[in-house]
Q: What sequence folds into this?
């Protein structure tokens, strides 16, 4: 660069130049996801949130499946087999639109599909994964119970043998996609420990009830599953995995997507606040010209940069050597809490307009209150990190 060459203008949304770390192929993945969000989600999501419904869930699943976004990080069976960074970038763009939409993709691909892909029989995989990858079948993941969230070892759902069959009884709570699913991966206590079952949702005794009156993740289907004498054939069970290792490994896959997704919600709120600060005038000039507003924006930009860099590092590491559970916890704990702070700060910059659904800020803020505690509360991730640091188990 010569002395006469003008310096390129800084990108306010990427002051650190993180985009330079992405390959052209990764940028193309991101652009494709952003395009579908721009056309099929963003114009409608505020109305979905306000009504507390996702009326196009099946149509949206098929559209996302046609792009290869469902189970995109899995190999074979109609899955795209893309990298962890590709998947992370997709989660970031989806959650920049809405956490509920990212949850639809995350539960489908990283919980239900991943469980079948990792632990299922060849028959399970052939029966379900191609249809789930295309969006023609929707799945859910039944682990959390009404009285057992952070402590899944206390689950009360039971599976007992009856001749060659299995019979399941119990209930699961706060299950994304539950009442629109074609298949449920259900974890139940057995005489052999916790085991996973592939449950077609048209099996007699299986019912799913949509949970209403939510003030968060309103553009998402959340359900209670009830299993009342659900009879399954012997081959419905995952054949090898025993104990909590199975469901917890699935949760780590989904938590990784949250590390990226939370930065999408944060970016959307930051972008909105930055634009608003340049347009909203008080005392004769835009509020972006006042020191306190600039301090807020600078702090938000720093945390957004830090969180995105952490997500990028974990993604590259996952592709290269894999991730340890405490590394995923580090990312989820930091990025969700910082994203929530960014949304709350953005709300203050927008003032009263910050609570209006004309802007995305309050929607992201409300959604992140759920993201903060699902798939591991801050307390649980803090203790996972603490155990890694000290070697001492402080969970009990």
A:
């Amino acid at each position: 660069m010569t002395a006469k060459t003008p310096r390129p203008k800084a990108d306010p949304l990427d002051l650190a130049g993180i985009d330079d770390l992405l390959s052209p192929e990764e940028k193309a993945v991101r652009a494709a996801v952003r395009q579908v969000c721009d056309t099929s989600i963003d114009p409608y999501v505020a109305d979905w949130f306000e009504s507390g419904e996702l009326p196009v869930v099946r149509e949206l699943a098929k559209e996302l499946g046609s792009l290869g976004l469902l189970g995109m990080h899995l190999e074979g069976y109609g899955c795209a087999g893309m990298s962890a960074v590709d998947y992370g970038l997709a989660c970031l763009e989806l959650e920049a639109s809405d956490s509920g939409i990212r949850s639809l993709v995350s539960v489908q691909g990283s919980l239900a599909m991943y469980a079948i892909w990792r632990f299922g029989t060849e028959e399970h995989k052939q029966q379900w994964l191609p249809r789930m990858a295309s969006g023609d079948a929707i799945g859910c993941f039944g682990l959390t119970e009404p009285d057992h969230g952070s402590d899944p070892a206390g689950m009360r759902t039971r599976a007992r043998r009856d001749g060659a069959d299995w019979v399941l009884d119990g209930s699961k709570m706060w299950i994304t996609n539950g009442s629109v699913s074609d298949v449920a991966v259900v974890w139940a206590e057995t005489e052999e420990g916790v085991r996973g079952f592939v449950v077609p949702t048209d099996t007699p005794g299986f019912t799913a009830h949509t949970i209403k009156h939510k003030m968060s993740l309103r553009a998402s289907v959340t359900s209670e599953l009830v299993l009342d004498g659900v009879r399954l054939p012997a081959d419905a069970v995952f054949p090898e995995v025993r104990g909590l290792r199975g469901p917890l490994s699935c949760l780590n896959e989904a938590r990784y997507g949250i590390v990226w997704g939370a930065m999408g919600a944060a970016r959307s709120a930051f972008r909105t606040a930055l634009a608003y600060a340049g347009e909203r005038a008080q005392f004769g000039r835009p509020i972006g010209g006042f020191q306190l507003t600039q301090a807020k924006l600078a702090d938000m930009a720093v945390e957004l940069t830090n969180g995105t860099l952490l997500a990028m590092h974990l993604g590259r590491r996952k592709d290269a050597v894999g991730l340890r559970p405490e590394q995923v916890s580090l990312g989820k704990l930091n990025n969700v809490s910082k994203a929530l702070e960014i949304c709350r700060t953005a709300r203050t910059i927008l003032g009263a307009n910050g609570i209006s659904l004309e802007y995305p800020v309050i929607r992201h803020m409300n959604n992140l209150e759920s993201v903060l505690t699902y798939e591991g509360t801050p307390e649980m991730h803090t203790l996972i990190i603490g155990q890694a640091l000290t070697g001492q188990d402080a969970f009990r």
